[in-house]
UniProtKB/TrEMBL annotation:
This is Amino acid ABC transporter substrate-binding protein. The lineage of its organism: Bacteria, Pseudomonadati, Pseudomonadota, Alphaproteobacteria, Rhodospirillales. It comes from Pelagibius litoralis. Residues 28-259 form the Solute-binding protein family 3/N-terminal domain. It comes from the Bacteria. The keyword Signal applies. Gene3D superfamilies: Periplasmic binding protein-like II (3.40.190.10).
Length: 276
């Protein structure tokens, strides 16, 4: 899917690295998105990329077009999965990863990251009438999205707590919620912001209970190829301009509705609103 962006914000760069050279030559920018990570990135009812991270990347596309002084820029959103997203960056299938991507030191050995775009943490969704605490999961099946930091964190938390539970790798967040509702698993683990959206969109949301406990700290950012400092600077400039304006509040509300913005997220925006 592709669309054309009108010239928006103007960001000048002294030099252009590999990604920007390719964009100038092709007048195209490829943005990777996961279709199963609402409200950050997903495919809407028309099959178009949507969500908080997608909106950030669309704004970055406008910044790229303005910086390169292109009459038109074809921005293509390319579907990726949790398993192949970093490989897609490395082999050039995408230029920027727009999703629910946690920054870790291990991942920074493979890719570079933009400024942080969101902060959340892993939590758990239970079924009403079933286990209602972490310790009650002993001997039960629990689900988690394969290929995520939550998968690693869950297994570590279970081991440290001495809880023996069967961890079931789930192919998508929606499939995890459905398995929970169908009583195939006793709990489903994911980042809290994703769990909130899953519960709201459930067939019977009143049967689902969201834990108040966090099992990890998950700082999100946009991933790009390593060593492409000029492109990363342009991405960061675009994010800073959003954070310093009212635009970020509108993007947040469009993605999360009337849910209150956390104090931690407000602080993240403020701390990254660097001067020019």
């Amino acid at each position: 899917m592709a669309f054309f962006l009108a010239v928006g914000l103007s960001f000048a760069t002294a030099s252009q690295a590999a990604t920007l050279d390719k964009v100038r030559e092709t007048s195209g920018l490829k943005l990777g998105f996961r279709d199963d990570a609402a409200p950050f990135s997903f495919a809407d009812e028309n099959g178009r990329a949507a969500g908080y991270s997608v909106a950030l990347c669309a704004a970055i596309g406008g910044a790229v077009q303005a910086s390169l002084e292109l009459d038109q820029l074809a921005v293509e959103f390319v579907p990726v999965t949790a398993e192949n997203r970093f490989a897609a960056l490395a082999d050039g299938r995408i230029d920027l990863l727009c999703g629910a991507t946690t920054v870790t030191l291990q991942r920074r050995a493979e890719v570079d990251f933009s400024l942080q775009t969101f902060v959340t943490g892993a939590s758990v969704l239970y079924r009403s009438g079933g286990p209602a605490s972490f310790t009650e999961l002993n001997g039960r099946k629990v689900g988690v999205r394969a290929g995520t930091t939550t998968d690693d964190g869950l297994r570590r938390a279970l081991s440290e707590a001495g809880i023996t539970a069967e961890v079931v790798a789930i192919s998508s967040h929606e499939a995890g919620r459905d398995a929970l509702e169908a009583e195939e698993i006793a709990a489903y683990f994911a980042d809290r912001a994703i769990l909130i959206m899953l519960a709201r969109q459930a067939k019977n949301p009143e049967r689902l209970v969201l834990s108040q406990r966090f099992f990890s700290f998950e700082p999100y950012a946009l991933a790009l190829r390593r060593g492409d400092s000029d492109f990363r600077l342009l991405v960061d400039r675009a994010l800073v301009r959003l954070y310093r304006s009212k635009a970020i509040g509108k993007i947040y509300e469009a993605s999360f509705g009337k849910a209150r913005m956390s104090d931690l997220l407000r602080a993240m925006y403020t701390l990254q609103s660097f001067p020019d």
